[in-house]
Amino acid sequence: MVTALRRGFSFTSAFGGVGVKYAHMGKSISHLFGSEAKVKIMRLFVFNKGAIFTAKTISERVQASAKVVRRELVSLIKAGLIYKRARGYLLNAEYDYLKAVERFLIEATPISEKEIIRKLSKAGSMRLILTSGVFKQDSEARVDLLVVGDKIKEGRLLKAISSLEADLGKELRFAAFETPDFKYRLGIYDKLVRDILDYPHRKLVDKVGLQPRV
């Protein structure tokens, strides 16, 4: 069973946007700021205000080597975007251009819809992939991703989600279901499923035939 609602979710069956317009924006931004790792680190701090990260945690979250992370942290400290403290690194909330940087990183989507589908499809046969929440700049949505499929492998799904999180710079709220479980929940007007579908969302894959919202 896969009913997954992580960081506010659950796993039950075996576990339980931003558009194509920006498909190539990620690489472009990397060139502009110097490296892909630097952009990921910037996203990590900007979208997690107040959080303190150690170099090790940053390396794990952005999926970059310790050497690369140390180099980019030095660069971002010199730029004034972050501080180094005894317990780790944190965002400089007084940085003069913080609002501009944040707006830019929100608009400049680092990952295309095609790439989201490709990564999630490694976890199983995808029947429905729906983006919401962070992908729609909607903080009130129940989840950022809804995944429905057949023979979903929990480990592979979590690995794919971690990869997306590294690109986006923040943890994702997601729900995942095996197809029969999702259809059953849909049929009984399950509150979680209805809440997800009632918020603004975009269907990247739909092989279950969801009816358009009225």
Question: Characteristics of this structure?
Answer:
single chain; 214 residues; alpha+beta; Arc Repressor Mutant, subunit A; 9 helices; 7 strands; 16% strand
Structure description:
With 214 residues, the protein is an alpha+beta fold. The chain has 2 domains: 4-23 and 112-206, no CATH class; 25-107, Arc Repressor Mutant, subunit A. 43% of the residues lie in helices and 16% in strands. The protein has a 5-stranded mixed β-sheet with strand order 1-6-5-4-7. The chain has a two-stranded antiparallel ribbon with strand order 2-3. β2 and β3 form a beta hairpin. The longest helix is centred in the C-terminal third of the chain and has 15 residues, at 154-168. The protein is elongated.
List the helices and strands and how they pair.
Layout: E1 4-6, H1 25-33, H2 36-46, H3 55-62, H4 66-79, E2 82-85, E3 88-91, H5 98-107, H6 113-120, E4 125-131, E5 145-150, H7 154-168, E6 174-178, H8 179-187, H9 191-198, E7 202-206
Parallel strand pairs: 5-6
Antiparallel strand pairs: 1-6, 2-3, 4-5, 4-7
Helix pairs in contact: 1-2, 2-4, 3-4
Give the ordered list of helices and strands: EHHHHEEHHEEHEHHE
Largest sheet: 5 strands, mixed
Helix/strand-derived class? alpha+beta
**Unreliable stretches covering 5 or more consecutive residues:** 6-26
Tally of helical runs: 9
Helical residue percent band: 40-55%
Estimated share of beta-strand residues = 15-25%
Radius of gyration, CA atoms, in whole angstroms: 18 Å
In terms of quaternary structure, the protein is single chain
How many domains? The number is: 2
